[in-house]
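sorry to bug you again but im stuck and you know this stuff better than me. theres a chain ive been looking at and ive put its sequence and its fold in token form underneath. id like you to explain what the token line says about the fold, in plain words if possible. anything you notice is useful, everything is just below.
___
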Amino acid sequence: MNDYPLLSSPIQIGNVVFRNRMFSAPMGSTDITENCSIGPRTYGFYELRAKGGAAAVTVSELIVHPETDKSHMLHLDLAVPGSLPGFTYLADAISRHGAVPSVELSHSGQYAGTYLVDKEKKKNLSQWGPSDGVRPDGIPVKALSAEQIKDIVASYGEKAALAKRAGFRMVMIHAGHGWLINQFLSPYFNHRTDEYGGCFENRVRFAIEVLKSVRLSVGEGFPIELRMSGSELFDGGYSLSDGVAIAKAVEPYVDLIHVSAGSYQFGFFDTHPPMFSPHGCNVYLAAEIKRHVNKPVATIGALNDPAEMESILREGKADIVEMARALLADPYLPRKVESGKSDEIIHCLRCFTCMAERVNTGTRRCAVNPIIGRESEGMRFYPAPKPRRVMVVGGGVAGLQAAITAARLGHKVDLYEKKNVLGGILYGEQGITFKYEMYQLGVTLEKIALIEGVIFHLNTKVDASLVQSVKPDALIIAAGSEPIIPRIKGVDGHNVIIVNDYYRMKDKIGSRVVVLGGGLAGCECAIQLGMDEKDVTVVEMRDVLAPDANIRNRPILLKKLDEYASVLTSTVGEEICDEGLFVRSASGEKTLVKADTVILAVGQRPNRDSVQELLHTAPFVRVVGDASHVSNITNAVYEGYHAALDII
């Protein structure tokens, strides 16, 4: 049964019919060769979105004019051997699953080099934009000449023609997020005094010339999608009313208007809404633009709930829903929607693991999907030559992922959990409103494990004798971790709560709270307490907060912490009393932080005793997740998945 008929209904854009209204938005390639051609892993990366049921899969980003955009992203030309064939094979990989292959035509403008892992190299590039200036990071920007603009316009058309030759059936023109076309549209970036600057008609001229060039190259009926920011969402940038004017101006030259939000330098978290933002927070931009144009409109921005997406279409706020991170987390989301299995969707956590990995290593990784960026290593499951009896100890995310994977391989899997519920640490995330999807992950994995035939044994502590009685062929130990309890006076007091138990003891928390421990868990708990209108102080012995947060998540986390809590760093908690927590500063001064409740969030340690007892009790033994080393969801998912694959 399909509960989402609009989301699953076809739509015609230009002369092309798309099988549903769920599009895979541009996501950077997983590997790009030294000469900016498509690397071998990229084929599987984009193919998986097509196999999962998306109607269109857009490849990101094809740099149209390398002479003025030195970003290390994809190039397409006839001069580089393998360039055109690579794009042809990629279009084939997408098309063979019934999806429409599209490619994003892009120019970074003054943000050339954004995705270089070696950020120092940006300083050696030539950054070009509409006007002379200096970027916020101090890198100078040179104004493009009229001759260069003409050459860039022609290049858009040339690259579109080559993409069509390679088998792509749609192109997307990237005119948002602070990239070059957006820079021309924006009064903040564009200070030109010629025909490309000043009044609105002049600022939109470059975009229209690009669209005309592309149309001339691809012909009538070939879909052209324009990606734009509905509003730049910063002082000095253009507003939503300007966004409406832009959409109306380009409407005659496009077939689909894709409305995003924000600008790279000033609004990363507008363009990519974090876990603290409501889902669909940018939909209003598309909805307003749709009121003023007749061409189809697409919306995007932290959308992963089919019910919400169906509502957006039903209420006429957009004609198409585009997803990026949601389809990293679960590439099969569209197929699950269409087959009535939406309760099996693995939802994006909005944890920014995917984007942090791109910044750190130039690759892709997803916290909840162990094959993203590694599709060629595990996109297809092959039954085990000989089914084995597999025993999984621990029902957290690592254990559940291991159990699901082993069951899919054809093994007989029993999962043992000492508590009466599954999910491990994730079970407690239900108490943090902005992390509810982490709790939901545990619930969904439990459901999938049951569907795959995993047998659960709750309230069962596993020891060596139990393993010996079961006689498994393979034992995967995912026994998790336990909270570290600091050895300070008063730690067992009536006013002390361990952060893992926060979800079930919220009613016992007073109006003034001290969180002892400023790692990721402590900071997130403090933010939630502040959102609940508690007076919160975080005490951290180190001089930094949340060093275990990734490079993309940490800035927004600290911003939220500053909004909702007071912080004492380089400060040690020494004694808990009825009045609060005595602390000692780096200078040696001892003071009392008054509080009704003290929450302990000083970290976790592996359950090593359980692990040690179970080692060598089966022919194959693997320790995964926090039981091996305390880390994060990403490592737990990956280790559980690969442990199951290693069973022979």
